[in-house]
Design goal:
This protein is mainly alpha-helical and 70 residues long. It has 4 helices and no strands.
């Protein structure tokens, strides 16, 4: 599942931002400095996924990703 791969990437970027002085935004300049890309995640047909047998886990991952500091 893509969400499981995104969470460690998010944490890595937040750790890098903390090490760089606590910025809460990954600017293009910081992205180049860290070798970290900004990733856009689009969920199409959301109803299909959240009503699937894995729906609860999918919703929890989406909420976690969306609620990260920005």
């Amino acid at each position: 599942m893509h969400g499981r791969r995104v969470l460690p990437q998010l944490q890595r970027v937040f750790d890098l931002l903390d090490d760089a002085g606590g910025s809460t935004k990954l600017s293009p300049a910081l992205g180049r400095q860290f070798g970290a890309d900004i990733e856009l995640t689009i969920v199409d047909e959301n109803r299909f996924y959240v009503t699937s047998p894995q729906g609860r886990e999918i919703v929890e991952l989406l909420v976690d990703i969306a609620s990260r500091r920005s």
